[in-house]
Design a protein that fits this description.
- With about 300 residues, the chain is an all-alpha fold.
- The chain is about 70% helix and about 0% strand.
- Helix 1 packs across helix 4, helix 2 packs antiparallel against helix 9 and helix 5 crosses helix 7.
Length: about 300
């Protein structure tokens, strides 16, 4: 990976980590479901008029829009509003890798390797330690909602894999159009029109800034740049960088919000990140001896050439 591409990968994970701190600030200005609806509204407009028509079937756009936009982000924002710290949320959400592997086994018949099973067990142990830590310092309801959000993220990962979008930015922008109305309806029903109107009437520059950051920087730029990297490098090269998200998430929350990081939380972070790293190891593919033939020095594959990338 070129240094500029390496920098971009780290930058995206830093943006996604800091995003949890920004969400914490935004929740001081908006009810959680309204905030989530505004996030997707601003991410979709005006970008939807600039990225062209959808490049996958609408069933995948709607499916991912509901599971990722409404379920995952709705539960995440409500969980954080219920008291789940932003730094810990960035860590606990990484359990989505375990949920993705479980759903891939149940729905797609993908059998996890022994290494992945060990990684999943270690990651689940990390979640257990984090739950003990949160149970002694905060409400378990918020923790449970964030774990549920990670499970919904796992479902959306399976749907995205089935959709196989050729353009990640195009796909994410169109997906962002789906959750707006369901989230607004849930906000009116559960949070009340008076609370929503008060938040919109009291909109100030810090509140507007949080919406712009989570919509344009974390969503449009983040997913667009991540998709750009995935088109130029193997997923096994790009995906491990996502393990930096909780590092930036916990660090920024401690720095800007004063969130404490207890010894138990450090232990949970080590177990969860290490387990997810193991669970993300791709299985080895056996190579048939009869299929291997000598390659002359003059022969080179396009994908191995810097020009081909």
């Amino acid at each position: 990976m070129r240094p500029s591409h390496l920098f971009l990968a780290v930058l995206v994970t830093a943006v996604w980590g800091v995003n949890f701190t920004v969400i914490e600030v935004g929740l001081d200005h908006f009810p959680p479901l309204l905030f989530s609806a505004l996030r997707f509204l601003v991410a979709a407009l005006p970008a939807v008029f600039l990225v062209g028509r959808p490049k996958v079937a609408w069933k995948w756009i709607v499916g991912v829009g509901l599971t990722l936009g409404v379920a995952k982000f709705g539960l995440l924002f409500v969980g954080m509003d219920a008291g789940m710290p932003g730094g810990l949320s960035s860590l606990v959400l990484q359990i989505q890798a375990v949920f993705t592997a479980l759903f891939a086994f149940a729905l797609l018949g993908e059998r996890p390797s022994r290494v992945r099973l060990v990684g999943m067990a270690v990651a689940l142990a990390g979640i257990g330690v984090a739950a003990v830590d949160e149970g002694t310092s905060g409400p378990l309801l918020g923790f449970a909602l964030v774990v549920a959000a990670a499970a919904c993220w796992g479902v959306s990962n399976i749907l995205t894999r089935k959709a196989a979008p050729p353009d990640a930015l195009n796909f994410m922008v169109w997906v962002s159009t789906v959750p707006v109305l369901p989230l607004l309806a849930l906000s009116l029903l559960l949070e009340g029109p008076s609370q929503d109107l008060d938040a919109l009437r009291g909109l100030d520059w810090p509140g507007a800034g949080t919406v712009l950051f989570v919509a344009w920087i974390a969503t449009v730029f983040g997913f667009g740049a991540w998709g750009w990297l995935l088109r130029r490098h193997p997923a096994s090269t790009v995906a491990p960088f996502s393990l930096l998200v909780p590092v930036f998430g916990m660090s920024s929350a401690a720095l800007f919000l004063g969130e404490s990081v207890t010894p138990l939380r450090w232990c949970a972070a080590a177990l969860l990140v290490g387990g997810v790293a193991l669970a993300s190891v791709p299985p080895r593919r056996p190579v048939a001896v009869s299929a291997v033939k000598p390659v002359r020095r003059t022969e080179a594959r396009a994908e191995d050439s810097p020009v081909g990338r």
